[in-house]
Amino acid sequence: MDESRTRIIRLPNPKYKRSGPKSYVYLLNKYKFSPTKPGPYVLGGKVQQKGKFGISRLIGGKTHVQRVLQKKSATDARPGDVPAEDQQNDSLYLCPVTIGTPGQTFNLDFDTGSADLWLFSTGLPKKTNTTGHNVFDPAKSSTFKKTPGATWKISYGDGSNASGDVGTDNVNLGNLIIENQSIELAKQLSDQFTSGVGDGLLGLAFGSINTVRPQPVATPVENMIEQADIPKSAELFTAYLGSYKDKNDPDHGISFYTFGYIDDAARAGQEIYWAPIDSSRGFWQFQSATASVGGKKMTRSGNTAIADTGTTLALVNDNLCQAIYDAIPGAKYDDQQQGYVFPSNTSVDNLPVVSFAVGGREFAVQKEDLAFADTGNGTMTYGGIQSRGDLPFDILGDTWLKGIYAVSPMFT
């Protein structure tokens, strides 16, 4: 296998601005969990009319209460809508993907926490702000075919959504061609989606959570396997997530994905540890029954976690979160940030080693990744590990993934 043909470089977004609260709000929206720690954001009920008539507003029909993310106001006792600017609407890293014949190139967020491949498209209303985005034009691709009757919709906890129709076309991932791959073309996007730099998303979770209706479609990795684009013995993909903080390391902090092989350079002679995967929720979910903070092991009987490359933070239960920040001098919980913070001048030597179990083995967070973003005052830093609220499982995003070489086999 020619490794260069499927190594897809993960490029840092030069316009990305780190913000702890905005990244946390993004996760509240994505996973629709309720916070268990105090702060301005809450999951509340919003009455909506399921109308039978009307154009600008719905009239008649039944009402129902929808659980939506809301923001508490300092001047109004009632929580209101979450402004678009309160959410991290951009991706820290993007990967180039070419679609169609001739190829049109897009910068996509590779996300193991979702299973849709969607793009900005020429079907969007003219009023949609697509400045700075690459927009797919199906009329310019000789291999595009529309899928009659198929639609898709992604909805988030704050009520924002993206939707459109579906077609098939050839998708080029590092010179690996996936023929007749279903692609989801946006015809409607909330402002939250247009304000970032990325041109869409490529989901790497399992196809069972794909949002296309009336029937979910296969993901790019599932089609690679079906079309024998990758070897039978290597039906997998890998993620090597470097960091700009690692620019002085031998790999210079490079990030990339591979499909159909394990990169020897990233593996660095280490034995691959395999853990059973539970794909029943559509995620890369595994047992994570222990964690360690500063050498002290905590038993977490029955606990599970998912690995999510579309998430910058790591989210764990409140007891573990508290133990982590108790081990950092000067750390505290900040209600206004809705997260744990610690002094920015904390040396790496004063940070604990934090590790989470994958099956029967623990893997550590790089100490420098315990710090995520400045809180805005130059003296405190928003931590890279935060509360998962009432979620029944941990979410281990880039904060943790940067410390490992993740190999994801499709044979779970």
Q: Unreliable stretches, pLDDT < 50, 5 or more residues? A: 47-61
From the N-terminal CA to the C-terminal CA, the straight-line distance is 23 Å
Major β-sheet strand ordering: 6-7-12-8-11-10
Q: State Rg.
A: 21 Å
Mean pLDDT across all amino acids: 89
Q: Name the beta content range.
A: 35-45%
Topology:
Elements: E1 8-9, E2 11-12, H1 20-31, E3 41-50, E4 62-71, E5 80-81, E6 93-99, E7 104-111, E8 117-119, E9 145-155, E10 161-173, E11 176-189, H2 191-194, E12 200-203, H3 220-226, E13 236-240, E14 256-259, H4 264-267, E15 285-287, E16 290-293, E17 296-299, E18 304-307, E19 314-316, H5 318-326, E20 332-334, E21 339-343, E22 354-358, E23 361-364, E24 371-374, E25 380-383, E26 385-387, E27 394-396, H6 398-401, E28 405-409
Parallel strand pairs: 7-12, 8-11, 18-27, 19-26
Antiparallel strand pairs: 1-14, 2-6, 3-4, 4-5, 6-7, 6-10, 8-12, 9-10, 10-11, 13-14, 13-28, 15-18, 16-17, 16-22, 19-27, 20-21, 21-25, 22-23, 24-25
Protein architecture, described:
There is one protein chain. The chain is mainly beta and 412 residues long. The protein contains six helices and 28 strands. It has helices spanning 20-31, 191-194, 220-226, 264-267, 318-326, 398-401, and strands at 8-9, 11-12, 41-50, 62-71, 80-81, 93-99, 104-111, 117-119, 145-155, 161-173, 176-189, 200-203, 236-240, 256-259, 285-287, 290-293, 296-299, 304-307, 314-316, 332-334, 339-343, 354-358, 361-364, 371-374, 380-383, 385-387, 394-396, 405-409. The strands form six sheets. A six-stranded mixed β-barrel has the order 6-7-12-8-11-10. A hairpin with a 2-residue loop joins strand 10 (161-173) and strand 11 (176-189). The chain is globular and about 60 Å long. The protein starts with 7 loop residues before the first strand and ends with a strand. Mean pLDDT is 89; it is low at 47-61.
